[in-house]
Request: fold
Amino acid sequence: MRVLVLGSGGREHALVRALSRSPAVSALYAAPGSDAMFRDGARPVGAAGSLDDPAYALAAAREARADLVVVGPEAPLAAGSADALRQAGVATFGPGMDGARIEASKAWAKEFMARHGIPTAEARVFDDFGAAQRYIRSCPQPPVVKADGLAQGKGVVVACSHDEAVEAAHSALARGAFGAAGRRVVIEERLVGREVSVLALVSGPRYLLLAPAQDHKAVFDGDRGPNTGGMGAYSPVPWVDAATLARVEREIIAPAAAGLAAEGIDYRGVLYAGLMITAQGPRVLEFNCRFGDPEAQVILPRLDGDWAALLAEAATGNPSTPARWLPGGAVCVVLASGGYPGSYRTGLPIDGLEQAEARPGVTVYHAGTRREGSRWLTAGGRVLAVTATAATLGEARRRAYESADLIRFEGKHCRTDIAAAAGEAAQQEIIPTSANRWTCLE
Ligand code: AMP
Ligand code: GLY
Reply:
């Protein structure tokens, strides 16, 4: 099987590493890819263009003579790349434009959840600032304000006061801070609880739950500071018990997969549910239409099986391969550029990569680097995702931080509390509900 991965970040590097282990993959390509992916066995394509242009995806797939395209990020999915590829007869892992709305429009996702009885925060949608302001002032507690469209994780303000919520609505609706993505806003009640990401592979009406993961979105320890794309992650999540996972499956994942199919959306890809586990049970904060970044960096290495087979089955329909997970856990610590998620410098030399990767169980995924001769240089806000697997989460955490400490670049910043809450727990009984098998709600 000839496989093309679309994207260039840490998640896509993890996809390349996972797919390169599959005996079924005879040739692996990445577009636009990264120097680290090309070091690790992916080949570049000559096609040039923007990843957000379906014509680019098509040109890259043709050049790679791809039997399967795996789309990493959300933007090409929202732009219709998967539709263009499937129309051209290329099996594609990633939903079409219709399914990608679940992430690309928070207003659409809210309506979808309402139609299918999926538990989520109470919300209203506004495109007029005056009406939004009046609504915010009428809320008993300061609400959460979200840009409707794709805003790279930066379009959400969890306001501490009504004034802050009004300011957030003003900046999106009146000042156009998020461009077209913020012409509408979703204003919703603030939920209290702990966050977890539960991802599933979806293929038409069937779904397969993946091991849960927790992401750490805020830039500083203790969840302080602005939100980022994600500063680290771990999997499994011992504090989510079997009964809660069973509720997530029954109340959220299963009705979402069935709802998409019932609405005529032939969804083939990842359905990512960002959840708040509240005192009343799990509630959806957001759906995404692709693997999380950095959740992928802890979920992908934990499969005791063949990702290429799983993703190809999901892409072509009629999936059957079950998911088995390696015992133990994985922890990923993101090393970011100083100043991220604000402005930061790039082109700074990185040292210690080889020593870090030589440690047992450690893989360093590259999120934003480039190679110049024999040197690796920083090239993004999130630079590296240092991931370690081990027999316990506690050991994985120690390994990840020991390796992270070996890597040096000017301004390097990482959180020191990734997976701290997971403690020393060995592992959880993962997904006891559907027994790691493809399930169809009928
Ligand atoms: P989202 O992109 O919608 O997942 O929001 C980004 C982050 O904002 C989430 O990971 C939560 O930490 C926070 N958040 C979003 N919606 C809510 C909510 N209704 N209540 C509390 N926190 C929220
Ligand atoms: N880690 C959060 C996301 O990928 O959306």
